Amino acid sequence: MLGKQYHNNMEHPRNVWRRWKNDTTIIGVSRIEQFRKKEEFVWGFVTLLAGFIVVFQCSNLSFRFLQFEVKTSTSLVAGHLRFPAFTICNINPYKASELAKLWQFVEILDYLNISQTGLPPEPRVLLPNESVESLSQKERYNVVVSSYCKCNVTGEQVSCVLDQQQSSVSLYACVCMMVKSIWSCVKCPTNQTCHYRHIALIEEKMNTYGFNIRDGGIANQVKAAESLPYLARTVSNEIYEQITYNFSDFVRSCRLMGKPCGASNFVERDQSSYGRCYTLDPEFQDGFAVPRRGPDYGLTLLLASSPDDYLSLTESEGFRVVIHEEGSRSFTTTTGFDIPAGLYTKFAIRAFRTLRLNQGSNVCVDGTVIPRLYTGKYTIEGCQRECAQTAIVKKCGCSDPRYPTFNANDSYCGLENNEQRNCVNDAQEAVLACDCPSPCDRLLKGLRKQANESSVLYAILEVFFDETLVETIVEADAYQFATYLSDLGATSGFWLGISVVSGFEILLLIYDLGKAMYGQLEIRLLHLRFRHLEQPVSPVFTIDEPDALPLRAVPLNRDWDPRTGRYRSEKPGLAEDRARRYRILARIQGLRLGNRHRMPNTRLPI
User: For position 542, what pLDDT does the model report?
Assistant: First the structure.
């Protein structure tokens, strides 16, 4: 048994390959040895060609499987639906009558007016020995300070501040009488004349807000509208509630499922660009199941716009409406519809549900992902805004006032800080690199809008289901794993007759070849290790010894006679020395010695 084990370790890789060819179940390989040389060559060529075809086709099948192709199936499912989430805002975000009491907002509107109408005439500073004769010349040389302006003096700095109780005064009229400059001006000594020009400071302030006379009215209006959220973040919560619209300010009547509803059914949401908006979300309330279709089982609102209180920035009169999935946040600036005042508008809803497959390149987000910036379900728009806010905080050191903050202690970027504003605008490009996949389970709402003229001055809005059936779109594997294995087996079996058993045979061949190559390498290492000895080691034993090692002897020098199995210069006691060295080899090989190979009163060297 020991000799057989050693023989397996010493088997040459060429013999392993020949033995495997005779025993394998692969028909093409096993028939090569059964023919003569010419036929063997032809059969080998055919087998090799078939092998290339199998590899090529199996590679194509594997590439197709790794593409993770999907197919869609559509079905209509009947059942009770829940009323979707509904968000409504006033297109005019802030009340003009309330903003007139706040100098921050009035200032930016005045500078917007200057950018559209042009700069006032610049006063000229009097030269020495120059006199003023007429009243018009006095107005030209001296800027009159309104009596509604208050001057705050702190050290060497003087600030001209508008009296908020007198809202009819234009802000750029509050000019320091001594220095002719707006807002911040240097206090001058009483015995000297201040030579400052307030027109230059007006242009500087306009540049701070991003206004430019050459851009035109529409471009400056857009910049002013972008600046309002910056100013809204600087006021207190009480003032913010005063300048924005309450639910009762524009909703005159509300009916839901044929029953009266009110502000208690809606949740207040801050949308920055539209002020305060109000969301009807069935996730937070009960009784929103829709048993039937039609306007009687929907939402009806009577809305008043109050155009007299609109800002000059607001170009249209009406409301902003967003119909979205329950439990998700609404984004009025990117989704939704405008409802004009004085029209009877109807929204007929149809439900669509999409179930996506999350594998391979078809990546989607399941319901376990919790957004950090916006509460509720995951949405693509919320993910993009969260990504943009993260980039802005990292790059600019402040938060964009149009989005919520991650922490309550985070500060917003300032309006008059041009460096921060430019940084915010540049960081918005980071949204293009955001990875925001679609949700795996998404309930969409298909809308059919119809608007007619109303006989009243109010806007009437109806939202209802046009169909109670849910159209479900399900994604599935277009090329499943079972089909992939079946195609692999059919291809390999058709060309080469390979099966799963043949695959295990190939693995066993690889193992045996590696084992044989390792044995050959080990013998070479042993020869290199013991070549420094006086007599080379090459043990030989007779065939009749059952436990003996193989008779194969490798001559290590010319003194060895392979025919007789002895050394030509053999001396007395050489057999014992050979046995001792053989035991060293046996220990290195990890083999057990038989009794015939043990020498009494001898110990192996350590």
Answer: 43
Residue with token string 């009406």: 318
**Burial classification of residue 280, based on how many CB atoms lie within 10 Å of its CB (0-12 exposed, 13-18 middle, 19 or more buried):** buried
Q: What is the mean pLDDT of residues 229-237?
A: 84
Residues 6+ apart with CB under 8 A from 606: none
Token pair listed for 514: 């590696």
Question: Residues 364, 440: contact at Cβ < 8 Å?
Answer: yes
Instruction: List % helix, strand, coil for the chain (3-state, nearest 5).
Output: 40, 20, 40
Nearest by Cα to 304 from 240, 349, 254: 254
Strand partners, 360: none
What homologous superfamily is domain 68-93+244-366+440-478 in, according to CATH? Acid-sensing ion channels like domains (2.60.470.10)
- HSE at residue 395, side-chain half, CA atoms within 13 A, is 19
- Residue corresponding to tokens 């050394």: 567
Residue 118 CB burial class (10 angstroms; 0-12, 13-18, ≥19): exposed
**Dihedral (Cα; 295, 297, 299, 302), 10-degree rounding:** 50
* Amino acid in the structure at residue 597: H
Q: What's the whole-number mean pLDDT along residues 521-545?
A: 57
Burial class (CB within 10 angstroms; exposed 0-12, middle 13-18, buried 19+) of 543: exposed
Sign of CA dihedral 319, 321, 327, 331: negative
Instruction: Give this prediction's pTM.
Output: 0.62
Domain ranges of the chain: 68-93+244-366+440-478, 96-225
Listing DSSP states for 537-563 in one string gives ------TT-TTPPPS-----STTEETT
Instruction: Give the C-alpha separation, 578 to 212, whole Å.
Output: 105
CA separation for the pair 230, 239 (Å, rounded):
15
**Higher-pLDDT residue of 66, 447:** 66
Work out whether strand 459-477 and strand 299-303 pair parallel, antiparallel, or are unpaired. antiparallel
Is the CB of residue 123 less than 8 Å from the CB of residue 137? no
